[in-house]
Amino acid sequence: MIQDLQKRTLFAILALAIFIPILAIGGLWLQIAMGVVAMLGVHELLRMKGLNTMTPEGLLTLLATFALTVPLENYWKFLPVDGNVVAYSVVILILLGATVFSKNYTIEDAVFPIAMSFYVGFGFNALVDARIAGLDKALLGLCMVWATDSGAYLVGMKFGKRKLAPRVSPNKTIEGAMGGIVAAMLVTLIFMLVDSTVALPYGIYKMMVFAIFFSIAGQLGDLIESAMKRHFGVKDSGKFIPGHGGVLDRFDCMLAVFPIMHLFGLF
């Protein structure tokens, strides 16, 4: 257990040493990086289902994911305000068109890739939008996600007894979930004390309440991915980060948290 924790910590630090500078730089470099990571996430999901991404349909799915993640309208000025959504819709239309001209590619075959491209692409697009609004807003969301994950892991490992969702994730406990919520609230409190403008138009008391919902959403995102892995009979979504699994194993919470932060008007 200790060796596993040490391995997780080491590679988490290495990953952060790469990710944080790119996040700080922001702009096109971050957006391209997030587009590529989103495509890797969708690739993992397609592979779970036994689908090959090196096919016309698979490549269109990856292209759609990238288009939804990156704010294309910021660079291609002829596009409307929601240019990335329009571009995504066009690629999906082409993908659906494949069901017309192919005997072996049906609407049932297209639904899963389309759903996964939206699920992953929309989550990463919300992260990109948060960074455009400000580095502090992106860090607030990410730190809540990381605090939830770490708090749930550490508290669950030491005090966990009651299973949270044994059918999809036998190791997660109610005690761990509560630890994740408390950790997210503490991180939010620290952010609000250091920079009270990070969560405008909300004040510290509302944000402490919101942190509970964000933490729950993040843990639900984690459980959703666990349910997918359980359904397809895999342990990890991939091997992107040693000791941490694939892209989705690290970003599953974020895919749920950032869209809800956007819904609440935090960016």
What does this structure look like?
Belongs to the CDS family. This is Phosphatidate cytidylyltransferase. GO terms for molecular function: phosphatidate cytidylyltransferase activity. Its main location: membrane. This protein is mainly α and 267 residues long. It has 2 domains: 24-133, no CATH class; 135-267, no CATH class. 74% of the residues lie in helices and 3% in strands. A two-stranded antiparallel ribbon has the order 1-2. Helix 2 (27-48) packs antiparallel against helix 5 and helix 3 (56-69) runs antiparallel to helix 4 (83-101). The protein is globular, with a radius of gyration of 19 Å. The relative contact order is 0.12. The model has no long low-confidence stretch (mean pLDDT 90).
Neighbour order of strands in the largest sheet = 1-2
Number of strands: 2
Helix content: over 70%
Distance between the termini: 39 Å
SSE class? mainly alpha
Instruction: Give me the Rg, rounded.
Output: 19 Å
Kindly give the count of domains.
2
What overall form do the CA principal axes indicate? globular
Helix-strand pattern, N to C? HHHHHHEEHHH
Strand content: under 5%
Seen as an oligomer or otherwise, the chain set is single chain
Overall mean pLDDT stands at: 90
Q: Please, how many helices?
A: 9
Report low-confidence residues grouped into runs of 5 or more: none
**Main sheet properties:** 2 strands, antiparallel
Keywords: Cell membrane, Lipid biosynthesis, Lipid metabolism, Membrane, Nucleotidyltransferase, Phospholipid biosynthesis, Phospholipid metabolism, Transferase, Transmembrane, Transmembrane helix
Pathway: Phospholipid metabolism; CDP-diacylglycerol biosynthesis; CDP-diacylglycerol from sn-glycerol 3-phosphate: step 3/3; Lipid metabolism
Protein name: Phosphatidate cytidylyltransferase
Organism: Streptococcus mitis
